[in-house]
Amino acid sequence: VIEQGLPDRAVVTTCAYCGVGCSFRAEMQGETLVRMVPWKGGKANRGHSCVKGRFAWGYASHPDRILTPMVRARIDDPWCEVSWEEALAFTASRFRAIQAAHGKGAIGGITSSRCTNEETFLVQKLIRAVFGTNNVDTCARVCHAPTGYGLKTTFGTSAGTQDFDSVAAADVVVVIGASPTDGHPVFASRLKKRLRAGATLIVIDPRRTDMVKSPHIRAAHHLALRPGTNVAVLTAMAHVIVTEGLVDAGFVAERCEADAYADWADFVAEPRHAPEAVERLTGVPAAELRAAARAYATGVNGAIYYGLGVTEHSQGSTAVMAIANLAMATGNIGRPGVGVNPLRGQNNVQGSCDMGSFPHELPGYRHVGDAAARAAFETAWGVPLDAEPGLRLPNMLDAALDGSFRGLYLQGQDLLQSDPDTRHVAAALAAMDCVVVQDLFLNETASYAHVFLPGATFLEKDGTFTNAERRINRVRRVMAPRAGLADWQVTQRLANAMGADWAYEHPAQIMEEIAATTPAFAGVTYDLLEREGSVQWPCTDSAPGGTPVMHAGEFVRGKGRFVITDYIPTEERTGPRFPMLLTTGRILSQYNVGAQTRRTANVAWHDEDLLEIHPHDAEQRGIAEYDLVRLASRSGETTLRATLSERVAQGVVYTTFHHPGTQANVVTTDLSDWATNCPEYKVTAVQVSRANGP
Ligand code: SF4
Questions:
Q1: How many angstroms is it from 390 CA to the middle of ligand 1?
Q2: Is the CB of 15 within 6 Å of ligand 1?
Q3: Where is the 4Fe-4S Mo/W bis-MGD-type domain (predicted)?
Q4: Ligand 1 within 6 A of 18 CB?
Q5: What pLDDT shows up at residue 321?
Q6: CA distance 412 to 456
Q7: Pocket mutation for ligand 1, best pick of 14, 25, 51, 52 (most atoms within 8 Å of C-beta)
Q8: Per-residue pLDDT tens digits for 185-221
């Protein structure tokens, strides 16, 4: 693994940006990283990379890094630099005092999809076994929680069905609510290669992304739906498939629950779900919708890839289940070239979910009320565990405002910038007695923190990330942690400061514990990963090297379950005051809230977030290219510069959120998915006007 060669040595590790999980050779001169070179042996990327993984690693040595722990009694006090021991003793004593006064459930924590599986496992273990509560949640709450709910309900497990290689066998590809070129660039290249070779592409997206039309790529169908109408469009596609006799009856009879299918088929066949009936609502011409549904259903292999444009809605979970329904109805599950594939945003969002980061689920997606599952962890950890689900992140924030939740351990998530309704988040954080931020930089949330614990970059630790295709990739320490400790060591020390006696010496030992307690990870060891390069869970007796395609022969839950997906409009409505709809997304060179990429040369490609507005709407408002505009909603307002673009339809505006000054989440609503509380970032009624200013 560690190769002696140019320049001095190279360490193979995994990119810490998106869910593709590209492998790189980190080339070193002494202790200095000089180059990241995409590694041909990486099974997720096969020697390819994008501008983030290849060039945007300079943040690791950026002078903004905080390298010394800091504490302060109150959030308006100045920070005081202290030793690790003092910082952790301070934290432990505050957490203990809160629990003594207000009960065990008055504190909790958030795991990070940026950290390794081993680190995430330890954070949820800290909260469950040491804090004694299930108040654990993850940043997946604000992105792919609906994927977890939707795919577990229909298929039996919360993960994408295919490996990336599978796309090479697809004849028809549906991309819905995703811009792979921006969010998952290396997978996008593989997808485009297949499209250039002749596969049919259907894009379902309010924006004309470059998947719709770009050099050498042209979608056969672009369903440019009105934001917030995914479920109506997907159910209308199901209507076409059922009423035009395009169902794969053999697959459904053999593989799916008969009664649930019959109820679903009756439901989608109702005339109110016909493309013609929903055309005005969705903005999608009925003939185009019918043609797309026929193309997907009649292809030999139809594959669906989706992103946050599906999940971040008040019906995010419903839309995921509507997608699963389409795949089951057409028999597009269980072989290469088909499937339902969430394009996971962060490097380890799949892993953070797998590792038990939800308040109702232990590692491996087993409910905390499952006595047998709980017993396995109680035996391993030597403590009784709570059988009641804990608080989700939004509920923690609400409880902070009524005084019943008072302490939060935040590993690697900038709540204030990334969560909706910024004012509500700020008020909740300000109401707590102990907010602990473990991060690389003094982020926006840190202004409400009492303790700052320096984090370590992916270059500074060992561990594993699990990518969007369930592939467990090794992360290898390239250099020593600049602040002295890797994140898993910080969590271990905090646990011990609160009375535990953990003694992990290396993340490999944590993986042994994961494998022993979490069936999907059974058999996964660092030795196996060294031998295989990487593996896709589950590793079973019959497939010890992993499972590229899931649900072959049988769904994880046994029979696939169709779910009725009634379209319920979002409560967010346009009107005279807020006549336009705002939707948000990402750009290739930047990553999420930009904490890392803004501290690299990549910022030159995108040094501010712009508001895309259709030229007709701009003209009506007297807005010219690069004018400063006021963007206002029922939640709040911000200003940013406009760019005129026909990528958005009239009545729709779009922006990214990579720069904190943009304050996009001051504007977004506080509405969320009915099943998971995932915020509805993708639909906000807004007013756009020319701002005074240069
Ligand atoms: Fe690969 Fe994603 Fe990293 Fe780009 S950001 S190199 S696509 S893992």
A1: 34
A2: yes
A3: 8-64
A4: yes
A5: 98
A6: 10
A7: 52
A8: 999 999 999 999 999 999 999 999 989 988 888 999 9
Query: How confident is the model over 477-522, as pLDDT tens digits?
Result: 999 999 999 999 999 999 999 999 999 999 999 999 999 999 889 9
CA of 1 to the centre of ligand 1 (A): 21
Where are any strands of DSSP class E within 307-433?
Answer: 340-342, 361-362, 366-367, 407-411
By C-alpha distance, which of 126, 160, 149 is closest to 499? 126
- pLDDT, one tens digit per residue, over 332-374 is 999 999 999 999 878 899 999 999 999 999 999 999 999 999 9
The fraction of the chain above a pLDDT of 70, given in percent, is 99
C-alpha of residue 65 to centroid of ligand 1, in Å: 22
Q: CA 328 → CA 199, 300, 343, distances in Å?
A: 21, 14, 19
Q: Complex ipTM above 0.95?
A: yes
| Structure letter (DSSP) for residue 259 | H
From the CA of 158, how far away is ligand 1's center (Å)?
A: 22
7-20 b/e (C-beta count within 10 Å ≥ 16 → b)? eebbbbbbbbbbbb
**pLDDT tier, 56 (very low <50, low <70, confident <90, very high otherwise):** confident
Of all protein residues, the one whose alpha carbon is nearest to atom 2 of ligand 1 is 18
| Tokens read off for 198 | 């002749």
Neighbouring residues of 157: CB distance < 8 A, sequence distance ≥ 6: 151, 365, 520, 550, 556, 557
- Extract the runs of DSSP E, i.e. beta strands, from 181-259: 200-204, 213-214, 217-218, 221-223
Q: Which protein residue has the closest C-alpha to ligand 1 atom 6?
A: 53
Question: Which tens digit of pLDDT belongs to each residue from 215-242?
Answer: 888 999 999 999 999 999 999 999 999 9
Pairing outcome for strands 610-613 and 652-656: antiparallel
Sign of the Cα pseudo-torsion (453, 456, 462, 463, in order):
positive
CA-proximal residue: ligand 1, atom 4 (nearest)? 50
Q: Where are the beta strands (DSSP E) in 85-204?
A: 107-111, 136-138, 172-176, 200-204
Cα gap 332→307, rounded to integer Å: 19
Peptide bond into 389 cis (omega under 30): no
Quote the DSSP letter at residue 361: E
H or E stretch including 473?
Answer: strand 471-475
The residue type found at 92 is: A
Closest CA to 500 of 381, 368, 411, 584: 381
403: left (phi over 0), alpha (psi -120 to 50) or beta: left
pTM for this entry = 0.92
For tokens 């903005």, what's the residue? 283
The number of helices, as runs of H, and strands, as runs of E, in the chain is 23, 29
Instruction: Tell me which of 12, 13, 17 to substitute to probe ligand 1's pocket, judged by most ligand atoms within 8 Å of the beta carbon.
Output: 17
Q: Are 122 and 510 in contact (CB under 8 A)?
A: yes
Measured distance CA(314)–CA(675) in Å, rounded: 9
- Whether 415 shows a pLDDT value over 50: the answer reads yes
Q: Which of 402, 341, 313, 311 is nearest to 169 (CA)?
A: 341
Contacts of 55 (CB under 8 A, 6+ apart): 36, 600, 601, 602
Ligand 1 atom with the shortest distance to the CA of 186: 7
The arithmetic mean of pLDDT across residues 46-60, rounded, is 90
C-alpha–C-alpha distance, residues 253 and 328, integer Å: 10
Please list, residue by residue across 393-417, b when 16 or more beta carbons sit within 10 angstroms of its beta carbon and e when fewer do. Answer: bbbbbebbeeeebbbbbbbbbbbbb
Residue-wise DSSP of 413-472: --HHHHSS-HHHHHHHHHH-SEEEEEESS--SGGGG-SEEEE---GGG--EEEE-TTSEE
Is the CB of 53 within 6 Å of ligand 1? yes
Asked whether the beta carbons of 405 and 106 are under 8 A apart, the reply is yes
Give yes or no for residue 36 CB within 6 A of ligand 1.
no
